[in-house]
Write a structure and sequence with these properties.
- With 71 residues, this protein is mainly alpha-helical.
- The protein has three helices and no strands.
- It is 39% helix and 0% strand.
- The chain is globular.
Length: 71
């Protein structure tokens, strides 16, 4: 796992994901996936979209179909 400036503790995932998922029309699904990604990477990009280069682990997680997993 790559460590970066935006890394934090797992207990901070819900609040970070609340910000990340605040603009979606599917907040429940977004929160579930975001918290899974956060739990693996201990990082969530800032803002509601984009900025995934802040968290390479989060950015690079893929679904079984090869598409980006994390919102």
């Amino acid at each position: 796992m790559e460590i970066n400036f935006f890394s934090f503790f797992i207990v901070e995932c819900p609040s970070a994901c609340s910000v990340r998922c605040s603009a979606t029309h599917h907040p429940g699904n977004c929160m579930d996936v975001c918290q899974d990604c956060c739990g693996k990477c201990l990082c969530v990009p800032s803002g509601t979209v984009g900025n995934k280069d802040e968290c390479p682990c989060y950015r690079d997680l893929k679904t079984k179909y090869g598409t980006p997993k994390c919102p």
